[in-house]
């Protein structure tokens, strides 16, 4: 299954969660075994040449692709979670939402100095979430090997927000798509 076929499994939901937003719903994709498998394979192939030891992904949708890619590439998986979810000492990074601020945490010992980490998410929009994950890696002394997403909303310029990190995406959407 190629990228165009995989794309046909993503449902666009207009005006969710608020007017003007075209929500990219990945649930039909991950509910289809062949499409989900093909999507993870494409992500794996697109990141095969990157040198990394661990994957970092954020709850909730990020876990779906981060976990699958970690399993397939036999790499360790680090969970980035919302505040007060992880039981031991954490490092945190804050990021901007439309209204106010949110934070992601990882356990302080998940990234040792020099660890090379691939940041994985289902979707890149403004880039705030992925940037916070890159900051988490660097705050803990690690190195960002790249950022890999299945879907990129190119018109929101997340890539620019993520400079100078290497960004890999499988499906790119323009405004109005
Ligand atoms: O590039 P950004 O503008 O930061 O947006 C991208 C993020 O938005 C979605 O997560 P969301 O915060 O909706 O959480 P969820 O995965 O729990 O649904 C998506 O899974 C990305 O993590
Ligand atoms: N348009 C969108 N669709 C799905 N998830 C998103 N996260 C941020 N923007 C999104």
Supply the key terms:
five-stranded parallel β-sheet; single chain; purine salvage; Ade_phspho_trans; 31% helix; binds adenine; Rossmann fold; adenine phosphoribosyltransferase activity; glycosyltransferase; binds 1-O-pyrophosphono-5-O-phosphono-alpha-D-ribofuranose; adenine binding; alpha/beta
Please give a structural write-up.
The protein is an alpha/beta fold and 177 residues long. The radius of gyration is 16 Å and the shape is globular. Helix content is 31%, strand content 33%. Helix 6 (158-161) links the parallel strand 8 (143-153) and strand 9 (167-173). The longest helix is centred in the first third of the chain and has 15 residues, at 33-47.
Summarize the structure.
With 177 residues, this protein is of the alpha/beta class. The protein has one domain (49-173): Rossmann fold. The chain contains six helices and nine strands.
Number of helices: 6
CATH architecture term: 3-Layer(aba) Sandwich
Overall strand count: 9
State the order of secondary-structure elements, H for helix, E for strand: HEEHHEHEEEEHEHE
Q: What is the overall silhouette?
A: globular
Q: Radius of gyration, Cα only, in angstroms?
A: 16 Å
What do the pLDDT scores average to? 96
CATH topology title = Rossmann fold
Helical fraction: 25-40%
CATH top level is: Alpha Beta
- Lateral arrangement of strands in the main beta sheet: 4-3-7-8-9
Task: Please state roughly what percent of the residues sit in beta strands, choosing from under 5%, 5-15%, 15-25%, 25-35%, 35-45% or over 45%.
Answer: 25-35%
End-to-end Cα distance, whole Å, is 21 Å
| Number of individual domains | 1
Query: Main sheet?
Result: 5 strands, parallel
Q: Which parts are unreliable, with pLDDT below 50 for 5 consecutive residues or more?
A: none
What would you call the structural class?
alpha/beta
Bound molecules: 1-O-pyrophosphono-5-O-phosphono-alpha-D-ribofuranose, adenine
Subcellular location: Cytoplasm
GO molecular function, one term: adenine phosphoribosyltransferase activity
Catalytic activity: AMP + diphosphate = 5-phospho-alpha-D-ribose 1-diphosphate + adenine
InterPro entries: Ade_phspho_trans (IPR005764), PRTase-like (IPR029057), PRTase_dom (IPR000836), UPRTase/APRTase (IPR050054)
